[in-house]
């Protein structure tokens, strides 16, 4: 991290990835010839913000491997999980600008670019120093993958794309609970979901003799979080801009949202929904699912199957510690009156990607080194294996079917943490997830069919305008979202009648919503209708 006003540019020679650096100095050779004497490349210090810093160790195997491979010193710094955006913006405002950061939203990206806090990253630098990454971008974003990131013709970002995003989110129902309460057909319609909710609440699905379970749990941290699949059953997606016959619409003010709120109010009155959804944060939801307090939840598909099949697996592996026969049915969500179905999904361009601090413009050699490390840690098999799996024969082996298998005691996460290996080690490029490349590392062969059966169930829509600068949106969205959250919660919990929805829509428009929609439509036509 560098104080902007105290930057002293240093010129150093840097080898390209995979090459050997040799400097030349003049000296006496045979018969008076001048010969080249080898010089030693000066080490650079690369610093990374890591949201899983608590699971890293100093002098870890992963860090030492990268340091030795690239002749660098690596510093991993803690990154807040809850206040990352605000903390980063505060640091930048005070002149303490990191070398590199990732995952800011586009509004913050716009702000920092306009403030002159972000370094330009020329396309040719990416192509030259991160060729595998560049090929991955073109594969998923087309021949001009930097198009949506450029400002005034200059690129300031290393795009991070979430290729899982458009169908990642699903609804999970406890299959063992369905069996326990006598439901033999997997719920599909809103009516069938309601029947399951009622029996999950009233028929003691965990067989502990208490009425202490609920049908559906969730949270209300953002507009998109509030029981999104119920809104999807009526064809609307709150918190997102979507295209409806060439017109940009916002799901929270569409007529279908009123129908969804009516049903959610009914379910709340019957105590079918977790009453604490208003207060829940992500960890609260996790705890309730893992402790069998609710039988339906919205989450990423890979959380409902074992970690060995892909990634995470918390709603399966952790739940089965206490309930060995626990299992899940995955669905895109309940089908509504017109057969509509789905939930708010994730735009594959989910964030503004990665950026370099402005001072890095004067240290292009160091910027190149960051890009080289990123390319290798995300796309080079040997580097990836050493970071995630460690030392072959000691921490892992390759099975007969080519599977990568941790050896005891490193099959336990706490031992991996002690040794210093795992997905938690961030070298920027760890955000560049090429799941085709990572397949043999993430999924055991015997579980490949389970992964394939789970990974494309999700349906719905995502915010197509997320990467587009809409000034009116940035100015008004916080107030509009707070208005929406309060209104939705009040209607669901019965503090306000459902009939107040129409008043809310008018209030939303007057509070800046009309201006937002007009500008969003204009930007939509400029960027997507050419």
UniProtKB/TrEMBL annotation:
Keyword Signal: yes
Keywords for the protein's UniProt record, in alphabetical order: Signal
Keyword Signal: yes
InterPro entries xref list: Bact_solute-bd_prot1
PROSITE patterns named in the record: PROKAR_LIPOPROTEIN
Record Gene3D superfamilies: Periplasmic binding protein-like II
Signal sequence residues: 1-22
The protein's name: Extracellular solute-binding protein
Classification lineage: Bacteria, Bacillati, Bacillota, Bacilli, Bacillales
